[in-house]
Amino acid sequence: MSRSNKKTKRLWETRNLRVLVDMDCVLADFEGSLLKKWKERYPNEPHIALEERRGFYVTKQYGDIREDLKSKIIEVLSSEGFFRELPPIEGAIDAIKEISSMEGVEVFICTAPLKEYQHCAVEKYEWIEKYFGRDWLARVILTRDKTVISADLLIDDRTDITGAEKNPSWRQVVFTACHNKHTPSNLLPKHSVRLESWLDSDTWKQIIEDAKKKL
Ligand SMILES: Cc1cn([C@H]2C[C@H](OP(=O)(O)O)[C@@H](CO)O2)c(=O)[nH]c1=O
Ligand SMILES: [Mg+2]
């Protein structure tokens, strides 16, 4: 029996574990790339080293240094090519392909477009096509409210995800990023677990297996 038949058959037995995977800072190196492009575009402006990053919004941290830096950061983020050219995070592409090939597991890529969507939204699709192939375009969910998407797990670097649904169906896996690595565990979302890196395959495999057992 082919794997897809097996997966279909399983639907009548137990349902699939549905895993949402965030893009920026989980699959794509948003922070590292932004810092590099910021220094190239504004070499005479102050910059925030990755070790100094605190809080989800890089825009806010720059704005706190000087108000006009916020709009300059947004200009870099929303410029043509920014999202298309993001390098993948180490191990991410292989890990996601492996998770999606696990029996009884389905993966969707769930990512928020910038409000300045003109390049961002299209380039996110281009990025997925480049690294995963055309078939994966059917697995992309673009939303600025991840709480209304139903799933078992959401792997995301943001630690304060809120939205219209006060009790999202998913449990969060907090993916470690420069801005959240100092966040103490008591400030992480309730029932969340941390994943430090895609290279730690023992941990992500364990997280998936544990979640499957709870179905
Ligand atoms: C403005 C800003 C956006 N982003 C990312 C998060 C969203 O992508 P994602 O949902 O893939 O992580 C996207 C739109 O806000 O840009 C940051 O990670 N930090 C920021 O400061
Ligand atoms: Mg993210």
Characterize the structure shown.
The protein is of the alpha/beta class. The protein folds into two domains: 3-28 and 87-213, HAD superfamily/HAD-like (Rossmann fold); 31-77, Orthogonal Bundle (Ribonucleotide Reductase Protein R1, domain 1), CATH 1.10.40.40. The protein is built from seven helices and six strands; from the N terminus they run H-E-H-H-H-H-E-H-E-E-E-E-H. Strands 3-2-1-4-5-6 form a six-stranded parallel beta sheet, covered by helices on one side. Helix 3 (58-65) packs antiparallel against helix 4. The radius of gyration is 18 Å and the shape is globular. The structure holds thymidine-3'-phosphate and magnesium ion (MG). Magnesium ion binds next to loops.
Number of domains: 2
Total number of helices: 7
Instruction: Please identify the top-level CATH class of the largest domain.
Output: Alpha Beta
> Secondary-structure element sequence?
HEHHHHEHEEEEH
Radius of gyration: 18 Å
Catalogue the unreliable spans.
none
Class by helix and strand content?
Answer: alpha/beta
Report the sheet-strand fraction. 5-15%
Write the CATH homologous superfamily of the largest domain: HAD superfamily/HAD-like
Largest beta-sheet details: 6 strands, parallel
- Termini gap: 24 Å
Pfam family, one: NT5C
InterPro entries: 5'(3')-deoxyribonucleotidase, HAD-like_sf, HAD_sf
GO biological process, one term: pyrimidine deoxyribonucleotide catabolic process
Organism: Lingula anatina
